[in-house]
Design brief:
The protein is mainly α. The protein contains 6 helices and no strands. Helices cover 74% and strands 0% of the residues.
């Protein structure tokens, strides 16, 4: 095993641990912190793939902006006032659905013929990425920013409450 593979397995393990922490944490703030850990580890995988631009975008947009937006939404809405979720009769069905999804995913990974030649790397310059972002993908980015702003304003309106409260 090369040292690159060792680093990959370490970063992949950190990603999986962070993802499990998101799902299994009882406190929603701890869950958000595990999400940050998982997203930063994914950025580490991008660095191992020599995709530095994607790593920077992963850290800035997902690790920073989206997670901070989630934390603000939790602070602005009254999360403490909502009743705590309890385990219900749906737990066995959810476990069965999760096991079926995992079996399907493992079957898809095992049965796929992966390309053997990975020596050829298609290098894309930052100039090409910039042109694509500001021409082809400008409208979807603006729509995403509008949706995030509407969500933040909605959280503020919910947090303010009614006049009589």
């Amino acid at each position: 095993m090369t040292y690159e593979e060792g680093i990959f397995y370490l970063v992949a393990a950190i990603t999986v641990i962070g993802a499990l922490g998101v799902v299994l944490a009882r406190n929603i703030v701890h869950s958000a912190l595990f999400l940050i850990l998982s997203l930063l580890a994914v950025a580490g995988i991008f660095i191992l793939l020599a995709a530095e631009f994607l790593a920077i975008v992963q850290v800035l947009i997902y690790g920073g902006a989206v997670t901070i937006l989630i934390l603000f939404a939790m602070m602005l809405t009254r999360v403490r006032e909502t009743p705590a979720a309890v385990d219900g009769p749906q737990r066995p069905v959810a476990a069965l659905a999760a096991a079926a999804f995992m079996a399907t995913s493992i079957l898809a990974v095992v049965s796929t013929e992966w390309p053997g030649n990975t020596e050829k790397i298609n290098v894309i310059s930052l100039d090409q990425i910039g042109r694509a972002l500001f021409t082809t993908w400008a409208v979807p980015f603006e729509i995403a920013s509008l949706v995030l702003i509407v969500a933040l304003v909605g959280a503020i309106v919910l947090a303010r409450g009614e006049e009589g409260e």
